[in-house]
Amino acid sequence: MRGCEVAAGKHPDYDIVGAGLSDPESNGERGMIVQNNVRWRAARERILSFIVDRPRVQRQLMAVAIDGFLCVAAVWIAFSLRLGVWDLISLPIGTFTAFALALWYPIAWKAGVYRSLIRFSGARTIADLAIACGLLTIPLFIVCVVFRLPAVPRTLCVLHPMIFLLLLAASRVGIRFALLDLLKVVSADVRRVVVYGAGRAGQQLALSLRHEPQVHLVGFVDDDLRLDGQRLDGVPVFGANRLHDLLEDTDVDEVLLAIPSASRARRREIIETLQDEEVYVRSLPNLTSVIEGRVTVSDLHEIQIEELLGREAVAPNELLMGKTIVGKTVLVSGAGGSIGSELCRQIIQCRPARLILLEQSEYGLYAIEQELSELMRELGIEVPIIPEMANVSERSSMRRVYSHYRPETVFHAAAYKHVPLVEANPISGLRNNIMGTLHSVEAAEEAGVANFTLISTDKAVRPTNIMGASKRVCELILQARAAQPGVKTIFSMVRFGNVLGSSGSVVPRFKAQIAAGGPVTLTHREITRYFMTIPEASQLVIQASAMAKGGEVFVLDMGEPVRIADLARSMIRLSGLRVRDADNPDGDIEIIETGLRPGEKLYEELLIGDNPKATSHPRIMRAREGLWPWADLEKELADLDTTIRGSGDGVVAVQVIRRLVPEFTPGADWAERLESDRA
User: H or E stretch including 515?
Assistant: First the structure.
C-alpha cells in the first residue's frame, strides 16, 4: 500500500540517504552522508523552533527590526537611484532615514501591519502594507517641504515608499514560503498529493494546501490536454492521459478530486481509473464552496458510494413536489427513520401549513424535530412542527392522531425493515408492518385524508422473507381500499430498492470494517442490489404521490444493479488499500463470504408483472399487478389480527401471509417449520 509505506522512503532528505546506501562506496562515506543529512535536518528544526515557538511579542519585535532594516535599505536605494551616487553614509541619508523610521512605525501599527501572522501572509497582508506605505508618503512630503531638508530631493517622498513596499512585500512572501518549506521538511510524514482539476476549485484547494505542513502538492491533473506541461503558481499541470505515469513515477499518496462541476458519469470514470492505482481518494462535494470562494482542506470528504453509481439525478418537478404539500397539513409516520426523516426535510422546503412527525422512538422523534428546527433557521422559513410519539400498530392511537390533526397528505414510512430481525421476530414484524398500515389506512379514511402514500420495497416482489411478504400485504391493503366504491382518499404506494446510508446499510458497515483493518464481510459474492440516494428516493416518492389517482403501485427507476462484492472492492481501493486475496496475499483488507442470511435473496426485483407503464416522470413507472377484493382480504386480516393479539403463534401467522401472498417462498428454516406444522 503506497499510503502506508515508510515516509522516509518518500522524503527528499531520505532519498539522499537511500542514494548513499545504494552507492558502492565505502561504509565510511555512506555514514558521512547520513550524518550530514541528520545534522542539516537538526539545524532546520532549530531554526523553525526559534522562529515559531517565540512568544507573540517577540515575533512582533523581530518583524519590527526586519522592517527597520528594510526601511534603511529603501532610503539608500532611493537616494542612489535618484542621485546616481552610491554613497552608504551621508548627512542627507541619515536625516531622511530618521524621519522615515519615526513616521513609519506609528503608521504601520495603526494600519495593523504587525497584527498579521507572517506565515499566513497573503493578498490582504500586501494590501495592508500598500496602504501603510501610501500613507507614509504624505508626512514625508510635509517634512521635506516644511523643514526644507538640505540635499534631499522631494521625489524621494514617493520613490522611497514605493521601494520600501517592494522590499516589505518580498520579505513577507519570502518568510512565509520559507517557513512553509521548513515545516514540510521537518515533518517526517509528508503526504504527496495530486489535485485532479486545474480549474477554480483546484486552484483554491491548492492555496489551502500551502498552509498544510504535512502535505506536498506534486501537481495538477486536468482533462483539458491543452494545459499539459503548463504551471499554475509554480506547480506543474499534467494531462489526464498521463495520470497513471504521474502516480507511478512520483509515488503519490493521495488524489484530491476538485471537479465539482463534472457530471456524475465523468466522476465515475475517473474514480474507476483511480481504483487500480492504490491511492487514497477524496473529493470536493459541490460547487457551493467554490462559488463562495472558500475552498479549504476541511471541505474534502471520502468518495461517496453514490459517485460510483454513475447516473445523473433528475431535477425534481417543482409542480409535483408542491402539489400535495404546499399549504397543507402533512403527516409522516416513521419520521425518525432513514426515509421518513428525509421526507420531512424535503417537505419542510415545500412549506406545508404544518408537519406532524409520527414516531414511536423517543430519540428518533427528538432528533428529527431538532434537525428540522435547525434547517428552518438556515432556510429562513417557519413551519409549525408537531411531534407525536405513537405506535402505528395501536388502532386507538392512530384514530386519535388522525382525528385530531386532520392531515390532508400522509406518507406512511413506519415499518420494520431488517430482514433477519423480522425473520426471527415475525409477530412483531407483522404487527408493526401490516396491522400498522391497516390501522393507519382506516384512520386516514375516517379523517378524510386526501392523499395517502405507502413506502414499499423491492423485497415485496416474489418475497423470500417475512419482511418482504408483509410489505406486499401492505400494498394489497391499499390496492383493495382504493378499489372500494365511495372511497375518497387517494391511496398509492411507491416501491424501490436499497437507499444509500440508511440504517443497517452495507455502506456504513463496510466503512467501519475498513477503518478497523478488516475483514470486510458479505453474505455472498454474487449478491446484487439496486441502490439510490435517500434524497433522490424521497423526492421521487413525493412526486409519485402527486401523480396518484388511486391504487397505483409506483416503481422507481433504480438504474443498474450493483454487485456487493464489487462495491466492497471499490471502497477498499478508494481508501488507498489493497484487497487481500489468492492473487494478492500481501494485500491489506480481506473480503470474507459469510453465507446468505435467513430470507435473503441473491437478486432483488422491482416488478411482479411485466410491461410497466410509463408516467410523466422519466424515473417513475406504474406497475400492473393483481389485487385482492376487500371482502376476502378483510377476512384474512381479521385472522391475522386474532393470531397476533391472541396466541402469538408465528407459524400460524406466516401461514396466513402465504395465503395472501401465494408467490411468497419462505426460507429453508421457515419452510421446514411450516411443513412440520402441517404434518
Answer: helix 506-515
DSSP annotation string for 83-105: HS---S--HHHHHHHHHHHHHHH
Distance between CA 629 and CA 329 in Å, rounded? 31
- Is pLDDT above 50 for 25? no
Which grid coordinates are listed for 573? 481501493
Please report which helix (H) or strand (E) contains residue 419, including its range.
Answer: helix 419-424
Distances (CA, A) of 609 to 463, 553, 624, 628: 14, 11, 6, 15
Pick the residue with more confidence: 229 or 311? Answer: 229
Evaluate whether 449 touches 408 at the Cβ level (below 8 Å).
Answer: yes
Cα–Cα dist 458/288, whole Å? 35
Q: Which CATH number fits domain 318-498+532-559+606-660: 3.10.290.10, 3.40.50.720, 3.40.50.2300, 3.50.50.60?
A: 3.40.50.720
Catalytic residues: 459
Q: In terms of Cα–Cα distance, which of 149, 141, 165, 139 is closest to 74?
A: 165
Task: Give residue 455's pLDDT.
Answer: 95
Let me know if 222 is exposed, middle or buried by CB neighbors in 10 A (0-12, 13-18, 19+): buried
pLDDT digits (tens, 9 = 90+) for 153-176: 777 788 888 888 888 888 777 766
* Residues forming beta bridges with residue 193, ordered by sequence position: 217, 254
Three-class DSSP category at 127:
helix
What pTM was estimated for this model as a whole? 0.63
Q: Average pLDDT, whole number, for the chain? A: 80
Q: Do 191-303 and 318-498+532-559+606-660 show the same overall fold?
A: yes
Cβ burial of 503 (10 Å; 0-12, 13-18, 19+) is: exposed
CATH superfamily of domain region 191-303:
NAD(P)-binding Rossmann-like Domain (3.40.50.720)
N-terminal to C-terminal alpha carbon distance within the chain: 59
Q: Report pLDDT for 290.
A: 45
pLDDT tens column, 35-85: 554 455 555 556 555 555 556 666 677 778 888 888 888 888 888 887 776
With cut-offs at 50, 70 and 90, classify the pLDDT of residue 15: very low
Residue 410's identity, in one-letter code, is V
For residue 456, report the phi and psi dihedrals to the nearest 5 degrees: -105, -165
Q: In this structure, are residues 238 and 218 in contact, taking their beta carbons and an 8 Å threshold?
A: no
How far, in Å, CA of 303 to CA of 305, rounded? 6
* Three-state SS at 381: coil
